Amino acid sequence: MARLRLQLPSRQYDTAEAFIEASVNALQPIIEQVGGIETIKAMGIGAPNGNYYNGTIEIAPNIKWAHECVVPLAKMFSEQLNNIPVAITNDANAAAIGEMVYGVARGMKNFIVLTLGTGVGSGVVVNGQLVYGCDGFAGELGHVTMVRGEEGRMCGCGRTGCLEAYCSATGVARTAKELLSKTDRPSLLRDINIDDITSLDVSIAASKGDELAKEIYEFTGHMLGEACADFATFCSPEAFIFFGGMTKAGDLIMEPIKKAYEAHVMPIYRGKAQFLVSGLDGASAAVLGASAIGWEV
Amino acid sequence: MARLRLQLPSRQYDTAEAFIEASVNALQPIIEQVGGIETIKAMGIGAPNGNYYNGTIEIAPNIKWAHECVVPLAKMFSEQLNNIPVAITNDANAAAIGEMVYGVARGMKNFIVLTLGTGVGSGVVVNGQLVYGCDGFAGELGHVTMVRGEEGRMCGCGRTGCLEAYCSATGVARTAKELLSKTDRPSLLRDINIDDITSLDVSIAASKGDELAKEIYEFTGHMLGEACADFATFCSPEAFIFFGGMTKAGDLIMEPIKKAYEAHVMPIYRGKAQFLVSGLDGASAAVLGASAIGWEV
To answer: In a mutagenesis test of the A interface, which of B235, B238, B272 is the best target, namely the one with the most A β-carbons within 10 Å?
Structure first.
């Protein structure tokens, strides 16, 4: 299968109409190259807050033209593309399907994909099917509460103590800032302006043996492992698959995850789940997954 | 459909063989009454730690003949019953199927049953199918961690801070003992020997207006509501269905559950899930559910 790829920054458009017009224009050369719109059977879209049931994007905080409304994106694209069927799902769900069809989850029927990026997203597969729930919005495991009560960090969702507030790339940077400002422990990270520290900086410092940076990844991995131990009680998955920029930290993050999981999971689940890192590159898994949901419509 | 019921205390037998022999003998009059074993298509069993995939009971703490081993109960029953197919699942899963086929979950595709009894059990239905996971043991939501760290109560599973340690009938009794021994607040519960207090006593005291008893149910319901808010991120169910002795406390327990849920759930899920109490009596849901899984084999 030939893969053609183009990038278009969705945030730079003011309206859904403008974004779709630009997208369809940009797609034209690809459409021509494969033999025209008549040869295309369907389109699949992975998008933040994408709703598979309704073909919509709903209240997506980071997209200007969808952050306060429901946009019928599937229908709007279909109308511009010779009425071919268009399916939509959120980006983490698309990644889960990408892993199932092309990635490390091939052959698996029960697994969880956790995307560790700016946020923490998830796609849950049970009995070989993606879990969409009653409303199309199931699988928001980044928003289970890990720290209850007043101590919990504010989360972008408006609540406190969510997994995402600690274990996303943003969360890792916050942990770094907290540790650096509350202690006077030495660290390579002190060479960086505290407000500019990223999870990548922490990962680089840790790989140079920086104790404080290693502790930050220990803390992050430990919390992810504890969260996964809770997730196991739900669907006893055969694998947890990690995806996104933060997995580049490798064993720094994966080892504490596995260790905390085995220490905290119910004895009946111990030793059963694999902990895998996606082999697909960031963009590919979601694009491939989105194309796979296109086939289902 | 005529329903015949008999009870046999599984704990009084020393071996699985003795239990099966007694069960098959006790079943004979019923088998004869419906026209003999040839007219029976299948058998369904709901049992603690029952494994649907393997037809086994595995390491069931409360059954003498299965608490340290794996018992192939389905096969053993089948051999004594003219080799009819026999299916097994755990009792909370059987209750979930009972609700789906005969109870308040009729027509639902995504819901969670929580059984509030001696322990907290659960059966999770996603896309109209029970969630068994990779090993047949999925759906142990009574063992998500609600209180992390050293403060967490010891749980029967060997870990600490589990939902079950607080929100089972046993957990309610423990909460009562803690509150009574740590404070000198007046309460009707002080008329009872502290080690004999049950969740029913707390419920009766609360219904008489006892403030301390009401607070115990507030606390219990609040924690259940917070837990359900986490469960929603997984499968966005259309209903949470509560089942078991503790639901007899009615609004005392259900109102704080609903209130805490709506206060803690992600905004995207708010107002979507129903909170229902099973209409089937305790034994019926599990028996009916078990019979329904018999049909699937």
So the answer is: B235
- A58, A131, A230 ranked by CB distance to B145: nearest: A230
**pTM of the complete model:** 0.93
Q: With a cut of 60, say whether residue B2 has pLDDT above it.
A: no
The ipTM, to two decimals, is 0.93
Test A138 with B234 for CB contact under 8 angstroms: yes
Instruction: Read off the tokens for B16.
Output: 């699985």
Q: Which residues pair with B240 in a beta bridge?
A: B112, B275
Q: Is B212 within 8 Å of B185 (Cβ atoms)?
A: yes
pLDDT digits over B165-211, tens only? 999 999 999 999 999 999 999 999 999 999 999 999 999 999 999 99
User: B41 burial class (0-12, 13-18, 19+ CB within 10 angstroms)?
Assistant: exposed
Average pLDDT, chain B: 92
Assigned token pair, B105: 């979950």
**Chain B, window 90-109: residues with a beta carbon less than 8 angstroms from a chain A beta carbon:** 109
Nearest chain B Cα distance for residue A266, angstroms: 7
Q: Do the Cβ atoms of A267 and B158 come within 8 Å?
A: yes
CB–CB of B134 and A238 under 8 A?
A: yes
